[in-house]
Amino acid sequence: MRSGLYYPHTEIRSPELIKSALLLWDQLEYIVPQKNHRPKYKDKWAAAAIELIGKAHCPTDHEKALAEAQIQDFVKRPLPPCFYYTSARVSKNDYLIYPQKFSYKVWGALREAQLAGPPLPPSADSDYPLQEATGLSIMAILADCCAGETFQRVTDRGAAYATLTGLLREGSTKINRLPKASAEQLVPITLKLVNCSKISLERLVKFRQREEKAGGHALRDLRHRYIDRIEMCVRTLTTLKGKASDVNEIKRQFRQDMSDDLKILRDELRFARNEALLSKEVLFTALALAGTAASWALGVPLPIHGVLTLTGSVPTFGGVIAAKGKYASSRRSILEKHPAAYLYQLTSPLRDL
Predict the structure, then answer these.
(1) Cβ proximity of 78 and 173 under 8 Å
(2) Is the pTM here over 0.85, yes or no?
(3) Residue ranges per domain, the chain?
(4) What is the CB neighbour count within 10 angstroms for residue 186?
(5) Is residue 67 within 8 Å of residue 42, measured between CB atoms?
(6) What is the full DSSP assignment across 243-312?
(7) Which of 279, 266, 256 has its CA nearest to residue 337?
(8) Average pLDDT of adjacent 10-residue blocks, the chain of 353 residues
(9) Is 95 left (phi over 0), alpha (psi -120 to 50) or beta?
């Protein structure tokens, strides 16, 4: 999957998730109550990142209907006490949700089941307060309905959802596809391979902006190959029914495979560069220039046809250009074979990408 849908909040609160999104997704959608709603980011580069790859997703009537059917079933199930909203007043710990994200029938069902309080302050367009467990639950359901089968569901509340999973298991119920292994969880593993775990959000934004410029399709292709390799690991982890030690072993193998791929890539690029430097075109040009320099300094021409004079030496620069072109072509071919090539490019100077 090359695009993601973020939940449960309207604004992405984790800088690390924004960094992962820049490395992974063509676009990252986020759920908004109205089409013209746009979250505001205090950080300049976080705002730039969302402007670059973010896209507001206002739930359609069909998506709201799908969510309504599941939530109607959800409220009828036995739930742990922490799901029920029994507070008589607003608390700073309340989980607030824009009412427009769901149909009015959902709010009626939630209030009837004592899973939501009245809108605060009393108004048809005011946020509804819920317990966090309930708020996270219904937002997971909505995200599932909005994402469908083509968007990766992305969250920065993994720990909260892990706790929620345990609570629901005890209550003999569940939510559709709570977060399991996801691509963004594997990004830190790959970043450690190129020693850029502390890479700035500014650099990542500028790196990603390269895709929008002329020739950026080549960099986009490398990112897609990088994603495809990560997705292979995600599929393995998602379908695994073993122990925690099995998960750790698969992640270890993934780390090792990507590390080896990066090392092989560097070796191949080094070989290609050396081969270009030792090519007959470059050697001939070097010899030609040496001969020209000697003829200038000593007035003694070397017996190399076409390089005895200034006018004769000019065409030999074509040898350098030809060698450079061959190396560029060879380099592209090498990069295209390695899923770690995108990470390699990330560590290159921006002017060289």
Answers:
(1) yes
(2) no
(3) 3-179
(4) 22
(5) no
(6) -HHHHHHHHHHHHHHHHHHHHHHHHHHHHHHHHHHTSHHHHHHHHHHHHHHHHHHHS---S-TT-SSHHH
(7) 266
(8) 91 90 93 92 95 96 96 92 84 89 95 91 75 94 92 88 75 52 75 71 92 88 91 82 78 90 90 68 53 51 43 48 67 88 79 46
(9) beta
